[in-house]
Amino acid sequence: MTILCVRFQLPPAREAALPALLGLLEEFTPVVEALPPDGALADLRGAERYFGRDAVELASVIRVRALALHGVDCVIGAGPGPLTARTALRVALPGVTCAVPEGEVREFLAGQPVTALPGVGTATARTLCEYGLDTLGRVAAAPLSTLQRLVGAKAGRELHEKANGVDRGRVVPNSVSRSLAAERRFERDELDSDRHRRALLSAAGELGVRLRAAGKVCGALTLTVRYAGPRSRTGPSGGSPASTTRSRTLKEPTAHSAALTGTAYGLYETLGLQRARVRAVALRAEALGPAEQASHQLTFDPADEKVRRIEEVADRVRAKFGPDAVKPGTLAA
Amino acid sequence: MAGFTHLHTASGFSLRYGASHPERLAERASERGMDALALTDRDTLAGTVRFAKACAKAGVRPLFGADLAVTAPERPQGDASVRRDRRRTPVRGGAFVDESAPRVTFLARDGARGWADLCRLVTAAHARAGGDGAGLPSLPWADNHGDGLTVLLGPVSDVGRALAAGRPDRAVRLLAPWREAYGDALRLEAVWHGRTGTGPGSLRLAARTVGFAAEQRIRPVLSNAVRYADPGQGPVADVLDAARRLVPVDPAKELDSGEAWLRDAGAMLGAAERIVEAAGFRRDVAHRLLEQTRAAAAECLVDPEDDLGMGAVHFPEPRLVGADRRTAQRTLASRAAAGMVLRGYDRSAKARSYWERMHDELDIIAHHGFASYFLTVAQVVDDVREMGIRIAARGSGAGSLVNHLLGIAHADPLEHGLLMERFLSRERVVLPDIDVDVESARRLEVYRAIIGRFGAERVATVAMPETYRVRHAIRDVGAALSMDPAEIDRVAKSFPHIRARDARAALEELPELQALAGEKERYGRLWELVEALDALPRGVAMHPCGVLLSDASLLSRTPVVPTSGEGFPMAQFDKDDVEDLGLLKLDVLGVRMQSAMAHAVAEVERATGERIDLDAVEEGDPATYRLIRSTETLGCFQIESPGQRDLVGRLQPATFHDLVVDISLFRPGPVAADMVRPFIEARHGRAPVRCPHPDLEEALRDTYGVVVFHEQIIDIVAIMTGCGRGEADRVRRGLSDPESQGRIRVWFAQHAAARGYDAETIQRTWEIVEAFGSYGFCKAHAVAFAVPTYQSAWLKAHHPAAFYAGLLTHDPGMYPKRLLLADARRRGVPILPLDVNRSGVAHCIELVSDTADSPGRWGLRLALSDVHGISEAEAARIADGQPYASLLDFWERARPSRPLAGRLAQVGALDAFGANRRDLQLHLTELHRGGRGAGGGQLPLAGGRKTAPAGLPDLTSAERLSAELGVLSMDASRHLMDDHGDFLAELGVVSARRLREARHGETVLVAGAKAATQTPPIRSGKRVVFSTLDDGTGLVDLAFFEDSHDACAHTVFHSWLLLVRGVVQRRGPRSLSVVGSAAWNLAELLEVRREEGLEGVAARLAAPGGAPDAGADDGDGPARSRLAGSDGLPAPAGSAARDAGEQRRLRMPTGYEMHPWADLRPAGEGPAVGRKLWHQSPGSAG
């Protein structure tokens, strides 16, 4: 009962606040694993002794602090291992920590739907439900060989173990948040690709500024386009509006806005959108690493050099006169 | 100065483009002092007839034209300026609608020739688009010519675009082929909508056009490219644009200028002056521009009567219908005579009257010259019969002996007292109308046969414009305004199917919309725009029954387009238009009951070898009438609706004539005129038979002095006044109009008096004529209807299993299939589950041999075709491959798709192969995977061919039922209400069977699955919601009166399972209904019961909203029963409930009132089918 799984109730627009919230957790234990976009696992084994409180009490402290400092409520599940903690999180309500004691893991799991298990996505869940294995109790009762026939040898074995409460996972600290996100919403259903690109330019610019300010580079960029449209059938409370996600690894890790924008445009072009009713675009910079370890391919083209130097100056101007002091011409119009 | 003529005007028939109806445009043109107006709809001439009629009314000369996209002439390679890169396929949302094709306006100039050219162009444009709707209609260059046309090259033509792009050189090049094709008939069209820039509608483009015209010596004209009649309709045009392009309105983009309205002459002169000045001419040149426009309009002379062919008749050439050597009339006469001999009438006792009647009719036909029409219909009927398709004539045509002799109509008109005059007489100068019913499943085959017989150049189906009603309007406007799709759906579905223009009124008045009305401000301009779309066409479909038959000139008189899907030729005109245009229309109705009966007969023959000839079934079969009198007539043609079951229960038909009367009485007219009660009273001897004069006895005797049929009115008038039946029919038609009624009354009194009838007789007779005259039903119709009614009831009585097999296969009638299945179960027909080794493509019958005590008991085997998502090919393959030895065998030979195989396993169709249903699923998945991978699909077998179990939990009983509902849309193994028995017992719900013993006036709780809901027009003008519940033991008919609507309407419309509190109404031994006072969603209560126990249910029932204060105390019962007339419908004395609807009550010309919201398809999603009836258990497959 020493692992906490925390999900901060961040509105999608505030995904970028996650690193600060992770910092809050790190005040209690160094063993914090970020679960982007809005969650984290924390191993409180040492902290219990240090603070003299058990994990459930600490969870309350964390909740209070998150609310006080950041104005963000959170949902917390607690259990002996990461798996149980994450499963417990599903049933937890804001304000009440759901704690699963050591000996009751199997019983607790038995009543849960298969989707509660981390690693069981919609596809696996659909497969299992089709065969009447809709709760973990039924999964646990099914023969291992049958499970393996259903979802494959390895996945079947893991599923079997997990459903029986065998939790081999542990919390792997990944010191900092591994991603940064920026989202732009539209007032109405937006079809105009110029305006889409403008939003991407703005979002990529913001990511670049934030990366450079933090001294980071990112190795990959993910574009999420959210549509007004029929809601996806899965997921709690009717699911979220449909969206498309595309990722691309950058040629070299970078925080250079122009490179990010170019990649974002490239991702956007692959979608070939015409009549899709876009309500928001979001860019996420992933695989963050320290800027000093990044390599940069020099070119003979002086333009690249110039752009980078202008960017440097612009950053300094922003530092002095605020984030809106300098922006690309297209966005200023 | 003389008015301006708009040469380029789009009406609402330009789908999702024009915002005004043609009538409105004609009206406005007249108001604004215009002498002429052109209608040039995009891609269609469908508005022509309505426009011509409206123009005639408004005193404006109509010009006809069309606005067509034109494909550029083939160019030699090298001109790459128009070539484009292929765009990437969008991952979502689809591609833009390509509207880049240049559009040109064509006006018919030279009378009939111009009109024919126009029709040809429109036909050609659509022919290229193909029937699949893949491409937008576009005129191929090869067809782009016509001597009788004037062509306007406007801003969106290729020439106009080149000018907009600042490329007069290119414009010259593009103009050359146009000049070549049309020479002097070419005009350049200048349009100024006050836009900036050089695009369409800008002053600069207009000026360039005028300048270019002067330079090229082509006459310019001025137009306003009209899209709507009045200023201020720009936002509506925006919504239409959005709906057409399938994108939302984007206020940041260029919206409609708001200027494209029907501007008056002064405003157009102003525009002309601005344009010529901008083009560098003197201001007074503007008059020359207007003069040119006027001259272009003056040239276009197409007369609606002479040139469009309105008022003339075109029958197929006589040689095509077997009259190549003799005249059509002679051929008809000899065929009729042959019919006499064939049917033996010439040897019967009444031979003389038959011959006389035949010759009379032939004289009338000759008088009108309709002989080839009769031959045409006879030809069609013969062809269809030869194909082995059941065919029956309906309508007044059944009253003609000649029709009967030609084999068109079954019933002998002399025997049933049917009159030719009701169908055709010397005095009537309208086209006769014969409708034929064919098997619905083979209707398209019939169409193909007709086209094959007469040729595609003479036959076309008729169009049926689909117009905006409230739900579609909300969907399109909502999407244009970027509303959330889920929200649009919710708002749209809350509305009943009413007109769009009533949206706001409905919000104010309908109780089930109260919740929505509360938040209506949130939607801003939505309501206004929704109402503006009212009745605009939004699509065109093929009319379900009309077929045009004409001579070879059809294609030069009507534009014909291929229908989507089948690719039948379809005239762009709708059924009213074609009548005005004098095109002969034959209504070929697909009747599902005919298909169902054909299937039943075929099944009986297949299974037993017994051949049934339905048309020769013995009349007066006691078992059949016993069945009908028991009111268990579900599935029987025409007598299955709740109202009809009630009427049949009271009428207790015993003969074919009673059926004819019953069908005639159950019409809105007779019900409204209260003809039902006196008839029933007299029939059961409770009231005397009224007969004003012995001369009328023969006419009135059969119906106990109540006038039921048109034929009786004709007879009465003919006898009393001696005017002849043809004239009497004309008089009868006049009765429905209050004005002419007065005149007829005087005329009737005079003539009757002259024939020596006394004043009292005249007075009493007139009362009868007046009261029932306009409501009666054509007896010929009723006889034609009663034949399949009797036949279907006969089948139900004697071959129930086959009858249900036919019904389920062809799904006729008003009830969902699962209700028919429940009925079959109740009537003791064993329902055999789906089994891949036994089920056929269609439902079939099977001998249930295991009951030794009743040999020859037939069961109903469910069909493969009812499995959700099965294709015809798959079903046929499975049926062809039977029997299968094992799962593997089935998989390999029947090759079902994976989801289909899964569904079959779920409903137990594969149970014969061993293992439980979930295990079977797993095996199927592995077979599927094995098939995809490199072979090697080894199936674990246990005990020979049985499939080995895999240890998965089997479907629970509830899951099985859920699967049946999901996959078959039917609760096949048992009734779905059976599972809720405990809860219903807790509540003390009365079952339908026990309800039969309930006292009149007793307050009861009933529950069941909703089967049908209607709000028919009621004489009192109240809105009454009728609904039928099915609880497994029978049907419960419910009525909700207005005072309960606030509390119940929403629940009744939007729930599938209902719990209702109400008072029993008893009107006869077999006639019973429940007047509801409170309704709950039973599915919700079941959920509550499961989760919160009885306390939760109690809390729910105690909550307001479910039940009103004290709607149904016992004292209310008798009072209500008095209000409800004996016909089962409420009497005119209204209840105390007054509402806003009262003021908006529609008063019919005949005096009876109608609630404004009556007769609508109610809100919600229709009767419950399939899985909606069942809570989705998380364990069942998707």
Automatic annotation (TrEMBL), chain A:
Region Disordered, residue ranges: 228-256
SUPFAM superfamilies (UniProt xref): DNA/RNA polymerases, Lesion bypass DNA polymerase (Y-family), little finger domain
Positions of the UmuC domain: 21-121
Presence of keyword Flavoprotein: no
Chain ranges passing through the membrane: none
Keywords: DNA damage
UniProt-listed PROSITE patterns: UMUC
Sequence ranges of Low complexity compositional bias: 228-247
Entry-linked InterPro entries: DNA/RNA_pol_sf, DNA_pol_Y-fam_lit_finger_sf, DNA_pol_Y-fam_little_finger, IMS_HHH_1, Rev_trsase/Diguanyl_cyclase, SulA_CellDiv_inhibitor, UmuC
GO molecular-function terms, A-Z: damaged DNA binding; DNA-directed DNA polymerase activity
Biological process terms in GO annotation: DNA repair
Family recorded in the similarity comment: Belongs to the DNA polymerase type-Y family.
PANTHER family: BLR3025 PROTEIN, BLR3025 PROTEIN-RELATED
Function description: Poorly processive, error-prone DNA polymerase involved in untargeted mutagenesis. Copies undamaged DNA at stalled replication forks, which arise in vivo from mismatched or misaligned primer ends. These misaligned primers can be extended by PolIV. Exhibits no 3'-5' exonuclease (proofreading) activity. May be involved in translesional synthesis, in conjunction with the beta clamp from PolIII.
Protein name: UmuC domain-containing protein
